[in-house]
Amino acid sequence: MTDTSKLIQGRTGPWEIVLGLEVHAQVASKSKLFSGAAVGFGAGPNEQVSLVDAAMPGMLPVINGYCVEQAVRTGLGLKAQINAFSRFDRKNYFYPDLPQGYQISQFAHPVVGEGEIEVERDDGSVFTVRIERLHLEQDAGKSVHDMDPDWTYVDLNRAGTALMEIVSRPDMRSSEEAAAYVKKLRTILRYLGTCDGDMEKGNLRADVNVSVRRPGDELGTRCEIKNVNSYRYIQQAIEYEARRQIEILEDGGKIKQETRLFDPNKSETRSMRSKEEAHDYRYFPDPDLLPLILDPAWIKAIEDSLPELPDAKKARLRSQYGLSAYDAGVLVIESARSDFFERAAEGRDPKLTANWITNGLLAKLSEAGHDIDASPIKAEDIGALVRLIEEGVVSSKIARVVFDHMWAGEGDPAAIVEKHGLVQVNDTGAIEAAIDAIIAANPDKAAAVKDKPQAIGWFVGQVMRETGGKANPGVVNDLLKAKLGLA
Ligand code: MN
């Protein structure tokens, strides 16, 4: 079925974008897929290279069981088929940063088969992306072209690092859906702890397959955009590439299947190489490695150890705390956020607590470019602030002032209220005195308000100003109505 809301208009009519993604996620392991060399960011060039990674003669790969476990764990988190039998193949090609002359990957028999992910769009609606497979493979090293005008350097620190390649079906129809899919996938990987999802370091990157077609037609010829490593770049690359293909087709041309690169400086894609087919790589089973045979009891033990995943947690936050789909969705994006919420909400009004976290704290943190782990405000203090509001010690307006002091690192909100004299004035005597003085000073306004009741707002403002914003607004309103004869 074609969703007409996502069609884009060309010169000669509407087009549909069809997107499938191959995401490479670096396994969060301490050592490489087939060697004991360390995996880590920031080491000096070629400091984390074993003889296996450098492909010295006679070296043999040894599978890292921990990496296999993480792949299985990820597969289970993607509700996917776990294959008890899988096998490593050699994918042969030459590249200066690939000393073996082949990449060890899984071609015919991946460790994980078909699964699926539920993805939320920005408007809250949900769609499903089918997962075709997840396989384990080695990463390559890095060629460094910009250190010397005449030479290219090679850094093999990344060579042999374990990657999970997660291949989706072509189930996305817009750049927003593609970005939402990667976001959701990243959230699941981080919940599982199998990949840190750090896109800036390239630990999670997407190859984006883009094609266009007339609604209802067969799939068009696709181009693959390699190694895009931010949500924004993924969207820009797709937008550009879809337009490029539509223009060619509308001019009567044909799309050449090829691999393209995204240039973030120009926001455009350019041709890298014409697309090779699987048979060009001369895949064959790696004779140095036995097939992987997984024990069903071992798989079951991993399944039993899975944490509560984002979809289940979202449903629970909604039913247990009565949160809106939006608030629950924002909180489960990172498990650290929902943990923070649950600590803060203990014994407090959960909706009010969620509101202070999503609209207050998370907004501030995003302005400052921080994660919730770096929050200067502790969960317990958000809870204490909500308690002050519930008990009428501060109005929600004054609570914002208290919050600003908390953000500045002053800690306990009760101490802040004390120190800065922010206690809400509930004392009707004090408020009455303020009201009487204001009415006495403005008899004409007090008379006019009888014909124009909404003018009471001016009096509320005066009373609040007189009391430094600390008067209980409910009490102020009630007293004003009585004294102005509006009650
Ligand atoms: Mn790959």
Structure, explained:
This protein has 487 residues and is an alpha+beta fold. The chain is 38% helix and 18% strand. The chain is built from 15 helices and 16 strands. Strands 1, 2, 6, 7, 10, 11, 12, 13 and 14 form a nine-stranded mixed β-sheet that branches. The protein has a three-stranded antiparallel β-sheet with strand order 5-4-15, with no helix packed on it. Strands 3-16 form a two-stranded antiparallel sheet. α9 (379-390) runs antiparallel to α10 (396-410), α12 (428-441) packs across α14 and α14 (456-466) packs across α15 (473-483). The longest helix is centred in the middle third of the chain and has 20 residues, at 231-250. The protein starts with 7 loop residues before the first strand and ends with a helix. The model has no long low-confidence stretch (mean pLDDT 94). Residues 24, 137, 165 line the site of manganese (II) ion. Manganese (II) ion is lined by residues 24, 137, 165.
Low-confidence stretches: none
Ligand inventory: manganese (II) ion
**Terminal CA distance:** 59 Å
> What is the β-strand count?
16
Give the DSSP E fraction (strand runs of 2 or more residues). 15-25%
Report helical residue fraction: 25-40%
What structural class should be given to the helix and strand makeup? alpha+beta
Number of H/I helices? 15
Number of domains: 3
Output the radius of gyration.
30 Å
**Average pLDDT rating:** 94
Shape: elongated
Biggest beta-sheet profile: 9 strands, mixed
